[in-house]
Amino acid sequence: MEMKTIENMSKSSGSAAYEISDFKMLERVLRDSIKEPVTVAIACAHDYESLKAIFKAEDEGLADYLLLGIKPEIINLAERLHKEGACSQKQLDELIGRIVHCENGEEAAVKAVEAIRSGKAQVLFKGIMQTKTLLKEVVNKDRGLGTGSLMSSVVLLDVPKYHKIFAVTDPGMVMYPDLSDKVDLVKNAEKLMTSFGYEAVKVAGICAIEVVNEKMPETVDAARIEEMSTAGELGRVTFQGPLSMDVAMNKEMAEHKKTFGSVAGNADVLLVPSIATGNVIVKSLMVLADAKMAGCVVGASCPIVLTSRSADFSERYYSILACALSASR
Question: Against a cut of 0.85, is the pTM above it?
């Protein structure tokens, strides 16, 4: 039986439809796709928004959790959330058995990674701590989570004006990817999107223009990756580039600029030339277009939730679901 893709679900009709007008398409797709909960290890879990997000995911049967951090602070926050109705009595009663007390971020990072390596947890989550503190332990050659692959950030976005969920890579890990890095970014994003039901991922090489210009190296890289895609070197990925943002995301604009292809106006993934470009795209869509997002770091031995310390509850919740779904596939 042919797998039902998210793209098709977003266009279908009936009781199981994910309508374009449904602003909660991201949440519904993630929730409906998770068949079995996985355990999330939260490093420095003494954080209000992180606890609120994981309590919701656990209450819905979508994730379990292990909390590593300052025990008294975790308990106080859980009691506050209980009073607010965001933590059930059952969760509060079971809380003590889920906490591993850690005095600082370094200890929490070590023990969270140990939980992944021992099989006690399948998703790593950065709570209220410095990103570099957690990543230092993740990339530790002796006791880390490295696989030999490039680790990269993939952000899923649900934008009301776009007809399906799409992704941006890399807005958070690889600062200035070279050609080899970009190929790895495409492969990492393809694996993640496949776990969400995409069968043939369409990737756009985002640049300022749609033609190759030797003075703009990102256009040269995009054209080379398209050649690799055409030659079948990227598996089932269809890559098109260079493409400007408007051409990649809007069919009418693509046709107006006489840029044709299966990716133009219908991209599943936007491959950006730098971390700054990706970061600006994601944050602009969130602030100005009311986009919902879920972030996932891939390439390690487990998916990693690596949201900003300023991330709100919904961003953390969606990211938990995205990583949980990836880990369960």
Answer: yes
